[in-house]
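Hi F.,

I've been meaning to write this up properly since the lab meeting, where we talked about keeping a consistent format for the predictions we share between groups. The idea is simple: the sequence comes first, exactly as it goes in, then the C-alpha cells exactly as they come out, then a line or two of notes. No screenshots and no reformatting. I'm using this chain as the first example so we have something concrete to point to.
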Amino acid sequence: MGLFNAIMSLSGAIDTDVIEDERMARHTSYRIGGRAALFITCHSYHALRRCVDVLTRERVPWVIVGKGSNLLVSDSGYSGAVITLGREFSRTVLAEDGVTLTVGAGVILARLVNEALTKGLSGLEFAVGIPGTVGGAVSMNAGLRDAWVGSLIEDVVTYKPGEGIRHYAHDDVAWGYRECGIPGDEIILEATFRLAPGEKSDIRATMERHLARRRRTQPVGSASCGSVFRNPPGGSVGAMVEECGLKGFSVGGAEVSPVHANFIVNNGTATARDVTAVIQHVRKQVKETYGVELKPEVKFLGF
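Output, unedited:
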C-alpha cells in the first residue's frame, strides 16, 4: 500500500516530522476539519524534496499548508499528506543595503511585520493583522484594495517537484487581485522584499491605524478564514451580502458575521458541512439578487 510505504520511508528521516491521523482542526484558523492521513513537517529543502519524491512515487496525494488561515478542511478529513514548512523556512535575513529582507515561506506574516518595525523599515504596515505565513501571503498576493504584498517583492524562490529550484523576479510574475502568476504546482520557498527606511514612531502609528480599523470592521478574535469571497470588480461582497439581509444568517454553528458580512465565523460548534451550507446559501442569494457569481477566496481540502 502506498501510504504504508510512504510512512516507512519518511518516519525517522532527517529534518522530517511525521504524524499519522492528525486532526486538521488543530491546524486551521476555523478550528474545523477531520484527520489528515499524514501530517508532515519538513525542516529543510532536502527534506522537502525527499518527502515530495516519496509521496509522488507512492501515489499519495499531498498539499502544502501554511497556518491554515484560509483553509476549510472537510469533516471527513483528507486521505493524503499535508506538508508544512519548518525551521529552514522560518528565517529572515537582512541584506547589507539595510532595506532588503529575504524571508522564508514558513515565516508568520505578523512576525515579519513586527520585524520590519523593529528594523525601522516601512512598507509592510498594511499587512498588520493579516494572518498566515509569508508563503501564503505571496501565493494569494495578500493585502488591501490599494496595497498588496506583491508590490514589495523583488524575487521569489520556488521548488518545482521533479525539476528543482526556480527563481522569479518581480516582473516575471503577473500580480493580480488575490492571486499571483506563480504556477500552482510549485512550492514557494522564500521571497525577497524591498522596503524603505522609516521612523519607527511613524511606522508604529500607521500599523495602529490599520489594526484599529480591522478591529472595528472585522470579527477579530472569532474563528474564521478571513474573507470568504473575492470582491467582484468595482463591488463589495460584504455590502451585497448585507443588503441581502444575510448578516447573522446561520446553519448549525456557522454564521455570517454580524460585524462583516464577508466573514463566516465558527461560533464554537460549526462543522465544515455547516460552513459550506452557509457559503452555498450566500452565493445563491447574491446570484439571484445581483446576478453575480461569487468566487470563494477560501481554499477547500478533502471535499
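Notes:
The radius of gyration is 20 Å.
The chain has three domains: 2-88, 90-216, 221-301.

If this format works for you, I'll send the rest the same way.

G.
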